[in-house]
Amino acid sequence: EVRGEAKGKPYQGLIYSALNDKGEKVGNPFKSSLFGKPVGIPALEKRIEKSAEIIKDKGLKERSKKVIASAMRSSKNRQDFEKALEKQGMGVLFRTNDEGRIYGATFIDHEQKCVFNGSRLGKEFSANVFNDFFNGGGQKPEQPDHKAGQAFETFENVSRERENSDTGMGGIFDILPIETETQTGEDFEAEALMRRLKKKKRKNTRRL
After folding, report:
1. Which of 110, 114, 177, 180 could bridge across to 51 with cysteines, CB 3.0–4.6 Å?
2. In this structure, are residues 183 and 56 in contact, taking their beta carbons and an 8 Å threshold?
3. What is the pTM of this model?
């Protein structure tokens, strides 16, 4: 997103750039106006609002929270956790500083085509929790108590739910529900991770 002022008048726009697998910009950027109104700020803001409604109305967060919580319970370290998520069609991107501390966590649910920041899913999925889990001796964080009927399912139950679910969700997949820290912000690293996991999924499908 680009904001500024020219000749006393404020302006706002979007610039698109190609990314490599590491989320790094490559080549020259392009103004959104070159591609048409559907990819401009007004259109994207409407899409974000509609996506937020879909996430809320369809309860899309709940499936992701179940999978993440189950993976946390069944894992002893970061590698185990990432593998457990991958088996359930999810990916995670941890952002770390030079000292190795985790300061950000983004989850990509490929089953529902949603991207969530951990803190948006709940404080039990925040970056600090995972930093303490993976860098603090491997002690598992305590999961909050849930009311009857709201408890997280076991890893096996989530797997069966995934296998038996109807994949023909139609219109939901036409609108990519992405929930990020800021509506106008972009998470290039998350986008790159989504592309890598999609490529891997296609390769596995061809092998079958």
Report:
1. 177
2. no
3. 0.55
Q: Is the pLDDT of residue 2 over 90?
A: no
CA 77 – CA 92 distance, rounded (Å)? 14
Give the count of beta carbons closer than 10 Å to the beta carbon of residue 1. 13
Q: What secondary structure does DSSP assign to 24-89, as a single string?
A: -EEEEEEEGGGT-GGGSHHHHHHHHHHHHHHHHHTTHHHHHHHHHHHHHHH-SSHHHHHHHHHHTT
Q: Which domain covers residue 163, as residue numbers?
A: 60-207
Percent of the chain with pLDDT over 70: 64
- Spatial neighbors of 117 by CB under 8 A, at least 6 apart, are 104, 105, 106, 107, 179, 180, 181
Within this chain, do residues 135 and 176 fall inside the same structural domain, yes or no?
A: yes
Helix (H) or strand (E) holding 3: strand 2-6
